[in-house]
Amino acid sequence: MDPLANMADIVEPTPVSFWLTLHPLWYLLVLLVLASAGLALWWWRQRRQYRAAQQQAIQELALMTQAHQVIELNALLKRVARHYHPSSQAWGKTTADWCAWLQSIHPAPIPLEPILSASYSPQGVTQKDFEQMRAWAQQWLKQALPARRPHA
User: Fold this and answer.
1) Most confident range, picked from 11-20, 35-44, 83-92, 133-142
2) What are the pLDDT digits (tens) for 65-76?
3) How far apart are CA 152 and CA 56, in angstroms?
4) Residue 77 lies in a domain
5) DSSP, res 148
6) Residue 105 belongs to what domain range?
7) Distances from the Cα of 132 to the Cαs of 44, 51, 110, 112, 125, in angstroms?
8) Residue 152 clears pLDDT 50, i.e. is over it
9) Nearest C-alpha neighbor of 77 from the set 62, 58, 63
10) Scanning 44, 56, 57, 113, which has its CA 20 to 30 A from the CA of 25?
11) How many structural domains comprise the chain?
């Protein structure tokens, strides 16, 4: 009898799982990457949500084309001021104080005369004055508002 005929094939062990061979620091690295991605997504959504009021105001401002919309323009600025500067209470001030507050936030020259006379004049303001006010309001909306939420 041939002794080699009684031999059996070698049984290979089952392969070790890939996840079991990873060093624990790899788990930590994966967790850190996932946490960073989640934090970045959260920050991006918060920033987008915060800037939505500004974008909406700019879109509404673009729709205002008639001189009789001066009061609506003022209301739009007050609404945005209430959203971005809630502690200032500027929207409840007199017209002169309101204009001074707007000037303190963004020092570009405000067309004051049309704003001050718009509420009391029966004919309103001229189209030229309104366009000047609208251009200033657009500049104020784009440049004077904070880019991110202030820390409370």
Assistant:
1) 35-44
2) 776 777 788 888
3) 24
4) yes
5) S
6) 52-143
7) 34, 25, 9, 10, 11
8) no
9) 58
10) 44
11) 1
The 10 Å Cβ neighbour count of residue 4 is: 6
Q: Are the CB atoms for 140 and 106 separated by under 8 Å?
A: yes
Residue 116: pLDDT over 70: no
Q: What is the pLDDT of residues 37-51, one digit of tens each?
A: 999 999 999 888 878
DSSP-derived letter for residue 23 is -
Q: Pseudo-torsion of CA 111, 115, 120, 122, nearest 10°?
A: 70
Rounded CA-CA distance 86/98 in Å is 14
Q: Is 151 a member of any domain? A: no
DSSP state of 93: S
Cα 115 to its chain centre, rounded Å, is 28
Cα–Cα distance, 104 to 98 (Å, whole number): 10
Here the tokens at position 145 are 């508002």
Residues 78 and 92: their CA atoms lie apart, in Å, by: 9
Q: Find out whether 141 and 78 touch, Cβ atoms under 8 Å.
A: no
Nearest to 123 by CA among 84, 69, 68, 79: 68
Give the tokens for residue 132: 């000047």
CB-side neighbour CA atoms (13 Å) of 126: 5
